[in-house]
Amino acid sequence: MRPPSNLSRVPVRVAVAVAASAIAVGGVAFAAVRAAGSADFTSAIVAMHSDKCLTSVPGHRHGNRLLQRGCTGAATQRFEFRRTGSGTSTGGARYEIRDTGSGHCVDVAAAVRLDGAPLIGWADCHGHGNQRFTLRPAAGFPGAFMLVADHSGKCADVRGASQDDGAPVVQWSCGDPATAGNEIWKVAVPSGAGPLPSTPGTGSATAAGTNPAWGLSTPPAGAPSSRAYRAIVTDNAHGYHPRDGECSREIHARYWAWGADGKVYPTWHPPRDPSGCTFGHEHGEDPRTSRLFAEVGWTPFGFANEQLAPSDPASQRDEDHVGHKMGAADGIQVHASSDPASPVVASCDALQMMHQGLHSPDAFTNNLHQMSYNVRCAYADDGTSIETRFTALVPIGRPGGFDVAEQCADGGARRHDDVGRVTPADSPTGIGDRFIADSVCADDIVAGNGDINRINEIWVYGATAPRDAGRLRRFEIATFLFSSNPARYFDPDAPHRTGHTVDLCYRGAKGFQCDQVRRLADQSGRKVTFDDPRSPFNGAARLMSPDHLVIQNEGPTTVYTDVFGERFSTTEFPGAIRQYIAGNHAFDEHQGPINGQFRNYAANATDRIHAPN
C-alpha cells in the first residue's frame, strides 16, 4: 500500500546581478557564470563516479534525453540554474535547470515518483515540482551536490552507476553520499550565487538552537544530560545497542542537541557516520532540508518525556531511541478540497518529529508518544500565514490497548484492551489512535486471504485547544504516521506478545516482500530473521503527513501547555512546555489535507538498516 502524496512548491524568482568565476573540479574545467535577469549561474554538471557530463540530446518522444557523456564543453553540456526558492534552508537552494543548447528544462518525465523514472529535457518550463531541484551539499565532497527533485524527494542518478557514455540519468531514492557516487554531481556554484549551506557535518551550522559540535564531539564535560541521552551512552533497554561493525556508542553520542531546559538530548543523525560506519537504524528525513530548520534547529529526542514527573521514577515514560522519526517537506500545496484538481489555497512547510516504535510491544499498551509539530502555511487569498512550533507527549487514543488496522479488520472494528501495564498508570486518553495488526489478521494472511501488505500500521496524533480559550479562539492539529512494513504485529501467544512479520513468510504468506525473503534464504542457506538487515520488514517505509492545522489566534503567540499538550495558558506554570502559536485565518471545513510524502528510508542497502528501528 502506497498512500498518495502531493508535494510541490510555489516558485519565487530571484533576480541577480552579473558575476563570473571559473572553477576546475576533478580535472574538469568549467565556468560558473551569472546572467543578468535570467539565470543565477551556468555550469556543467559532472557525475562524481565517472567524471562525465550530464548531456541533453534529442531523441525522447517528449523532448530531449539526458545522458552522461565525456565532457566536451558543448552547449548541450552546460546548464542554467535559475533560483526558485529563497535559498535560506540549510538543506540547499532550489533551482530550475535549463540546458543552454535547447533551453529545455530538466524534468522528471510525467512527474512520476517511482525509482527509475527518466530525467528528460522538456521544452515547456512550467515550474512544477518535477522541474525544481535542490542542490543538497554532499557531505565530504566540497563543490559537489545531490540533485533532489522537489516532487519526489529523489535524486538524479546515473542508472546502475554506469561508467559508459550514453548511460541514462534517472531519479532514484537518495543514498548515502559516502557510497552513492553516481548520485553526486560536481556543480560550479559561484560564491555570490546566494546562501548555499555549509556541508553537513562540518560543525558550522548557523540556525538558532543548533549545536556546532553536532556529529563532531560529545557534549562538554559536566553538561547536564537528559534521561534520553543517558540511555544512548549506557547499556539501557531504550538506548543504542551497536552490533559488531556498527558505529560505537561514542560516535553515536556525538549527535546531540541542547533542549530548552538546558539539558543534552540525542537528536537526528544520518544512517551512516562520515567515518563509514553505520548505526543500523534511521531517523527519517534530514531536518536541515527544511526551511523551518533555521527557527526550529535540532529536535531534542525525549524532551517532552523529560518534563513528565521528573521526580517520580515510577511515572517516567521513556521511549526507544530508534523510534524517533523526522519528516520534512517544503511548499506542500493545499487544495480547496480533497480533489487534487481543485484550486490551491495554501502552501505549507513542515518539519516534524513523531515517535513510532514498530518493533516492540510498547505501543500495544502505552499511548504516550512525543510529537514535535512545526508547520507554517501561507494562504493564497490574502497572504496571511499561520504557524506553530508545538511539542508534547501526546496521548494517542486510549491507554492499555489499541485498535486493529483497517486492512486487518476487513473494514470492521476490532480492538484489544487491557493488553498490559501502562506507564504512567494514569495516562490520559487522547485524540486519534494506534492502528496495529494482530495475530487474527496474520493467520488470515497465511490462510491465503490477501498478502503480507495487510500488515501495516497507522498512528493518528493530535492536539487541540478548547474553543474560544481566551484570545486563542481555535487551535487544532491532526497528523498521522503510516508504515507499510512494520517488523511486528500483536500476538498474545508469542513471547512479549510480539509476532515478527518476517516469520509469516515462512508460513506461506504471499506478497513480493515474502518472495524476496524466501529467495534470499534459499540463496544464502540462512534464514532471514526479524533483525536481519536483509529483512524488508524494518519499519523504514513510511509516510508522515502534517494533515490538518487550524489557527485562529488573536492573543500572544507564546502559549504554555502541560506535558500532554493540554491545559493551554498564556501564563507559565510548573511543568509547562512553551509553545508557539501564531496567525489567524478562517478555516474551510472542505479544505484538503496537508499531504506528506511516502519514502523508504532503508532503500540504500549499504546503510544496513534492521529492526529494531
Explain this structure.
- The protein is mainly β and 613 residues long.
- It has two domains: 169 residues, Trefoil (Acidic Fibroblast Growth Factor, subunit A); 381 residues, no CATH class.
- It is built from eight helices and 32 strands.
- The strands form seven sheets. A seven-stranded antiparallel β-sheet has the order 3-7-8-11-12-15-4, with no helix packed on it.
- Strand 20 and strand 21 form a beta hairpin.
- The radius of gyration is 24 Å and the shape is globular.
- The two termini are 20 Å apart.
- The N terminus is likely disordered.
Largest sheet, order of strands side by side? 3-7-8-11-12-15-4
Number of helices: 8
Percent in strands: 25-35%
How many strands, what sense, and barrel or not for the largest sheet? Answer: 7 strands, antiparallel
Q: What is the arithmetic mean of pLDDT? A: 85
| Rg measurement, Å | 24 Å
Helix content: under 10%
Number of structurally distinct domains: 2
Number of strands: 32
From the N-terminal CA to the C-terminal CA, the straight-line distance is 20 Å
Low-pLDDT parts are: 1-37, 86-90, 194-209
Structural class call reads mainly beta
Shape, principal axes of CA atoms: globular
